[in-house]
């Protein structure tokens, strides 16, 4: 019997904050992990999801039933390694059919010490999370009693008020793109995805990626043409350092563009509030309406916090540019009289539809005006 087959026989438990308990089969590394549980409705792109730094500290439930069937490929990583805390799937495949795959998902999860559970009713679980809202959970494939699981679960911090960008941001600045490119863009790395950097570089921008806590003055020494505020994990209201940097960027009058957490930071810098959502939006098929063009776009999303639409609509500083058609939340804004805009979704859409990639062009066009 191979190592992988042996491991599929190990039992695992998923224990939720509300006391509900699910039994299944262990995948990945044998161990115990805790974090906020959330679900992603995407039908493809599991590796991109696991390596997205925005999921740092979270246990991800894949709602599509077959996971692992196309293995993993190094070139599809959105960061250097998986950033999820734990993984919950319905049917897990040790074998993969893609000829170009580098390894099986099981080998990949073991290599990166990710604990997971399979063979449980993810539809039932997702319904519970959907109704009760995001909550903390623990996965264990070790022989622990329910009392021990409860003790460990009590130690998991709440996502509300949690600052996490500093854990996933680059320690040292690095460059992406052609140094002879026409424009230089300073990237404030709050937990950036690799494919976002690729999109900016492919449009003629040379990027310098800075640690989340870098001051505006330090970034400005490089003399960039504009600034990009990236996606990332955690509660935006706990990030005063980034909010102050965003204020300085806007005061400079240079073009700036924010995605997801970057969008929330720009809003907070303009005096707009943010809040923790009941569930968040995570998937590849969220409809958004662009209020400027009147067109709708299908978008890739991943966020558990949102910007107050009421605050945006009552503000003299910003205007609403996009709304989420599922729940009418704020999905984009423009700072009045400034070359600063932001969206609450992922225009690089890796994985996902390509409807929103015009936003990268919109950003770089600001350098020409």
From TrEMBL:
Name the InterPro entries for this protein: Anth_synth/Amidotransfase (IPR050472), CarbamoylP_synth_ssu (IPR006274), CarbamoylP_synth_ssu_N (IPR002474), CarbP_synth_ssu_N_sf (IPR036480), Class_I_gatase-like (IPR029062), CPSase_GATase1 (IPR035686), GATASE (IPR017926)
Chain spans, region CPSase:
1-183
Physiological role: Small subunit of the glutamine-dependent carbamoyl phosphate synthetase (CPSase). CPSase catalyzes the formation of carbamoyl phosphate from the ammonia moiety of glutamine, carbonate, and phosphate donated by ATP, constituting the first step of 2 biosynthetic pathways, one leading to arginine and/or urea and the other to pyrimidine nucleotides. The small subunit (glutamine amidotransferase) binds and cleaves glutamine to supply the large subunit with the substrate ammonia.
Its top-level enzyme class, in one word, is ligase
What residues sit in the active site? 260 (nucleophile), 346, 348
EC code: 6.3.5.5
According to UniProt, the reaction catalysed is:
L-glutamine + H2O = L-glutamate + NH4(+); hydrogencarbonate + L-glutamine + 2 ATP + H2O = carbamoyl phosphate + L-glutamate + 2 ADP + phosphate + 2 H(+)
Residues binding L-glutamine are 54, 232, 234, 261, 264, 302, 304-305
Please describe the quaternary structure of this protein. Composed of two chains; the small (or glutamine) chain promotes the hydrolysis of glutamine to ammonia, which is used by the large (or ammonia) chain to synthesize carbamoyl phosphate. Tetramer of heterodimers (alpha,beta)4.
Pathway involvement of the protein, from the record = Amino-acid biosynthesis; L-arginine biosynthesis; carbamoyl phosphate from bicarbonate: step 1/1; Pyrimidine metabolism; UMP biosynthesis via de novo pathway; (S)-dihydroorotate from bicarbonate: step 1/3
Keywords linked to the UniProt accession: Amino-acid biosynthesis, Arginine biosynthesis, ATP-binding, Glutamine amidotransferase, Ligase, Nucleotide-binding, Pyrimidine biosynthesis
Residue ranges annotated for the Carbamoyl-phosphate synthase small subunit N-terminal domain, each copy included:
10-140
Tell me if NADP is a UniProt keyword of this record.
no
Protein name as annotated: Carbamoyl phosphate synthase small chain
